[in-house]
Amino acid sequence: MLLEWNWAMFFPPARGIFGFSAAHFVSPSSKLRHWFRRVVLSRGWPTFIVMGLALFVFGVGTYNIFMLLSANVGLIAQYGW
Question: Which of 24, 40, 46, 74 could make a disulfide contact with 20, Cβ separation 3.0–4.6 Å?
Fold first, then answer.
C-alpha cells in the first residue's frame, strides 16, 4: 500500500491561546460583508437603491471637487501665485 505525502502529518496547524486556529476566526467585517451580499445584493431592488446611493455620493463628491478647484483657480487668478 502506497501512502500519500502530506505536510500536515509533520506540521499541524498552529493553535491559538484558546485552542482555535486562525481559520476558525471570522472577523466582524467578514460577517457584515456576507450579510450585505446575502440580504442586499441577492435582490434586485435593494441593489438598485445601493447603486443609486453610490451614484449620488459620487456626484456630490465630484461637484465638491469641482467647486474646490474653481475656488482655488479664482484665488490664484485674483492674488497671483
Answer: 24
Task: Please tell me the distance from the alpha carbon of residue 50 to that of residue 43, in angstroms, as a whole number.
Answer: 11
Grid coordinates of 63: 461637484
Q: How far is CA 3 from CA 7, 12, 13, 35, in A?
A: 12, 18, 21, 42
Phi, psi of 58 (to 5 degrees): -65, -40
> For residues 38 and 48, what is the distance between their CA atoms, to the nearest angstrom?
15
Backbone angles phi, psi at 79, to 5 degrees: -105, -5
5 DSSP 8-state letter: P
- pLDDT bracket for residue 13 (50, 70, 90): low
